[in-house]
Amino acid sequence: MSGASDRVPLPYLREAAVALRDTQQRRNLATATTTIRAKRAAVTAEMPDWEALRVAGAAIKAHTLANLGHYLERLEERVMAAGGHVHWARGAREANDLVRGLVRGTGAREVIKVKSMTTDEIGLNRALAEDGVRAIETDLAELIVQLAGEAPSHILVPAIHKNRAEIRTLFLRAFGIAPSDLSDDPAELAGAARRYLRERFLATGVAVSGANFAVAETGSVCVVESEGNGRMCTTLPHTLISVMGIEKVLPRWRDLEVFLQLLPRSSTAERMNPYTSFWTGVHDGDGPRAFHLVLLDNGRSRTLSDDVGRETLRCIRCSACLNVCPVYERVGGHAYGSVYPGPIGAILNPQLRDVERDEALPYASTLCGACFEVCPVAIDIPRILVELRHRTVERKRERSPLPYGSAEDAAMVGAAKVFARWSRYEAAQRLGRLGQGPFVRDGAIRSLPGPLAGWSAVRDLRALPRQTFREWWRARGAGGGATPGEHEGEARDG
Amino acid sequence: MAESARNAVLAAIERATHQVRDADPAAAHDALTRGYRQRGGASLPECLERLEERLEDYGVRVTRTTADGLPAAVAAWVAERGVQRWVVPPGVPEVWLSSVRGVEAIADDAGPRELDGADAVVTSCAVAVAETGSIVLDAGPGQGRRAATLVPDVHLCVVPASLVVELVPEAVAGLADAVTGGRPLTWISGPSATSDIELVRVAGVHGPRTLAVLLVEDA
B53-81: string of b/e by CB count within 10 Å (b at 16+)? Predict the structure, then answer.
């Protein structure tokens, strides 16, 4: 990845404000999420035992995470017994250095990659580039965003923000095709990518993948995909390096009977995805001769230490929560400033990364609960969002130099006093009516001064009316007789 | 350094989970509730019908035949597709191909470029799942190395009815020995596909663009 994706994202609220003005992206997102929502609803409704599968999926994941050390040690033992190598990485840098070392050992100048959020999380492509190694994304959508110099905007459909005309323009430039030889028909565009990548699959000796699941009992690693690029990468090269977050392990082979049902129906809204590959170490005469599994922590063990964190780590990266989220549908994936966008990103990033920048993410939600309803492992995202908001407030309070906590606390205390007595409330309304004058435009307040500026930057407020309902009611009782409609009209003019 | 990273990660996990982990993880795992369907209730004809319908939904052409009719069905398919060179993995029963004439057979351990030059590949399978329209290869006899069913553009799969199950858990149970024995698995549900451009499903990105199934009703 290069160019725009290297840019440090602005805080969520600023990114969201920019994204909301991108009408093309909003149209693309609305079409895509609406389509996939309907399909998901249909393929889950046809399963009489969908809820039982969700319950089992949640229980298996919860059990695994509670016993994570045990299962990781078993996985390591089984992979090694099958001829594979296992490496451990505490953080992104350590993981990148490990992979760089392994690639250097092969002498390869190019590696082919299967779509992997974990390697995006650690910025592996950039790290490889420092050694002059080019990482070629082979998933069609990942290739599109790589060619555009952008970052993925959706877990499952990383190029969801790009339409066919934009993709055609990218391909013409990157593949050196004459404009008359390529239309914007999706089948033709996919065909151009097939021709471009086929040669690389046949010639490249090293592949890097992620992993959807790994089985502790057998040492088997699994990649779930649609296009066949995953099969190409895990089969044709002589060396395969898979980077896997430690939370992806499952106890037993049998557990796949649950997740092979939950994942495809929740993510691509299919009864089954086209291709699922399992491999166990190395197989004599079939597939790579060297297999390396890199187990990545990068904030996961810290997240594991409380029940909110363990529940978050159940996530199997299906992206169903993105597709139902009214906030995601409008701001898109980039605003979240992470490879994990949407509702799951709003709870995962603040826990994995523990940086101040992510403190706004738990607020990127209306708490409508749609994400919880569709989550295949029943993560109660709204409950976790509220808990993380609470933690943010606590942290702000600790950081604040004010004796009564944060400025927000002070405002809340003041508001409580005002709302407690009708006389104070009405006095405040009269004061507000006098004070709002300079800030009202077209009946709305869009920006406020001083400590309120941050609050009003992302909220439009209706101006206080010239007369409140209670004032009107009293005036009416006293023989006044104006109708509310007239007053509303006046307020709008003010 | 690798050793220290390993110990550091495991120690951090231990600190995070020591109050919640089970004394006997295997027993706790056995006790997990599995309220979903483990065994299907459909009859074999119903299963075959559903498999056929689900495969066709993915754009797969399904042809029904019998054990006696299979050689002619294979030969007719080869003639219709104009196959001249194809990959025949060891263990594909000779009788299946007994009516095929004039097609060059390539071994499944050929290099990727030679495989790329084949028109098709013919295999058996380990199990097929009716509910999801899936065919599973487990590197057993007649199924070939993984590259052999991936690089050629067309995959013809012969599915004997006796290998068809209704539900995913039944298939997973049937594959336990292969996985425990360290064999690789490939689950195939339709031809290679992508929906990456405006969510329009396009068949055939990197894997075989065509998957054809011969369903043998009495085998």
Answer: ebbeebebebbebeeebbbebbbebbeee
